Amino acid sequence: MSLRIEELPDRLVVTLDRPEKRNAVDADLVAALHEVCARLEQEPRLLLLTGGTDGIFAAGADIGQLRERGRLDALAAINSALFGRIRALPMPTVAAIDGPALGGGAELSYACDLRVCTARAFFGQPEVRLGIIAGAGATHRLPALVGEARAKELLFTGRRVDAAEALRIGLVNRVVDEPGELLDGAHQLLDEIAKGSALALRLTKLAVDAPVAAHPHLDLVSQAVLFEDEEKRRRMTEFLDRKKT
Ligand code: COA
Questions:
Q1: How far is the C-alpha of 23 from the C-alpha of 58, rounded, in Å?
Q2: In whole angstroms, what is the distance from residue 210 CA to residue 57 CA?
Q3: What GO biological process terms are annotated to this protein in UniProt (predicted)?
């Protein structure tokens, strides 16, 4: 099994576990991550996705398998469909990155909603050097994260982005100094998120990820649903009553 899964009441902690190949994403790992998605779609919970704290997030798609793939494999969207499914998970997701996140490994982290990394983490899209494009999300998710010109520079050159730069350009949300602090840092972020209403979080994620043309209609419908949600009344009443005591 190339994944380890820890099940907590409000979240799954999923650790890529293929250290001998630097967590390169091969067909087995793709299948295992699809199973994780199926579980989270059935029972929506938060996701913490990590490569662990031994200095690797993921070295990208498995180049051994990639080399043998033909045009029909490309059209089958093996990694891009998985990463799209991760992005569409109902509840927020956080990637915790220690060490390299390269190629498809970086794209896997962009598929998550948020990223926390260690000071020794770095990101890069070396695909053009391998004669292919970054076909599993970087061409649209990277510009959304860091802006078009920066994304193009990174995609054209394959230059690596270290943790400090990643934080500065908005590629990661938080950086921790030591690998030992990484998972705590990611859990803290998820704990903050978990304070919100689960339904409001789901609808917020749907709205942010919707195409521009869906606004404001989607926001209006989401708010209409939430305005009649019992939890909204409870949370607002709690706030108002707290002010009285
Ligand atoms: N696909 C398949 N195998 C990979 C891999 C990948 N993307 N990345 C690493 N591996 C394998 C290596 O071939 C090696 O296998 P071996 O022990 O059977 O020879 C093993 O993982 C260890 O890799 P190594 O390069 O020795 O590890 P490192 O710690 O010195 O360097 C990286 C780690 C991630 C910096 C380096 O492996 C690397 O640059 N990988 C390729 C990144 C890339 O171009 N990804 C884009 C794919 S689209």
A1: 5
A2: 28
A3: fatty acid beta-oxidation
SS3 of the chain: helix, strand, coil, percent, to 5: 55, 15, 30
Pocket lining: 59 vs ligand 1, CB cutoff 6 Å: yes
Its CATH architecture, for the domain 3-194, is Alpha-Beta Complex (3.90)
Give the residue, by CA position, lying nearest to ligand 1 atom 11: 21
Do the Cβ atoms of 47 and 91 come closer than 8 Å?
yes
Our CA angle for 214, 219, 223, nearest 5°, is: 155
* Run of H or E including 231: helix 230-244
Active site residue 153: no
- How far does residue 100's CA lie from ligand 1's centre (Å)? 10
pLDDT < 50: residue spans in the chain: none
pTM: 0.97
Q: What is the pLDDT of residue 245?
A: 62
**Hey, which bits of 46-202 come out as E strands?**
46-50, 93-97, 100-102, 114-118, 122-124, 161-162, 174-176
Active site residue 165: no
